[in-house]
Amino acid sequence: MRLLAFQNKGQPALGLRLGQEIINLTEQGLPATLDELLRAGPEGLASAKRAADKARTRLPLAGLQWLAPVQAPAKAIAVGLNYVDHAAEGNFEPPKYPVLFHRFPSSWVGHGQPLVRPHVSTQFDYEGELVIVIGKAGRYISKEKALDHVGGYSLFNDGSIRDYQFKSAQWMMGKNFDNSGSFGPEFVTPDELPAGASGLKLQTRLNGKVLQEANTRDMIFDVATLVSVCSEPFALQPGDIIIAGTPAGVGFARKPQVFMKAGDVCEVEIEGVGLLSNPIVDGD
């Protein structure tokens, strides 16, 4: 299934996409957010399929006001340096343990919504990434059981304010400016993809030019490993997300450097998962 969050008459709603149309699941009596649906466990996703089978009306996908698939994750854990080539371009040794940091919901927008370059920086960088959405709670999850805890996948543009990111050894400041990243467009259940979302082509394009191209099989720490590691310090809950890292080709490492600016359009695409597109605007 492909589920999405959108604005319907000023209120959040949950939809299921079928081609170029969507079924409004909220009108069928289901929750208005994927967060709540995931908390219902496997029965939640099963109820979405049943409601879609019974629905008689559909909405056009065109003109939809998209929201981020998960509205308020209890935890949003981002992964740094998860591709060998990206670590190398930043002059880092490939990590032996995942480099993890937090990303706050106020720092991202949905598909089609503008990414905001803050006026305090000219180093607004792009990072295309896979998102792992937790569907089943657990702590100390073994790598062998980890994929059982994955509810689905999505995309992320981990927009980074580089001059703030490197002010200290901690990356939080450069990764959490309001509306600097994006998440979406939809939530794709694992049955639509290879196990662990492995072997999928990833591209990031700025104004149509390919700047990042890789494959999810090249991640240093795969999906199962990331879920297992992230479940050690705290229990993962349904709706938590893990933003799984970006490959080489970021603007900061290019010569000459390439940064996003007002008027640009940045696209992140992963085979089978979707296309996340956002225009860039200047902040106040």
UniProtKB/TrEMBL annotation:
The keyword Glycoprotein does not apply. Residues 76-281 form the Fumarylacetoacetase-like C-terminal domain. Keywords: Hydrolase, Metal-binding. Its cofactor is Mg(2+). It comes from the Bacteria. It holds the Pfam family FAA_hydrolase. Belongs to the FAH family. This is Fumarylacetoacetate hydrolase family protein. It comes from Polaromonas aquatica. The lineage of its organism: Bacteria, Pseudomonadati, Pseudomonadota, Betaproteobacteria, Burkholderiales.
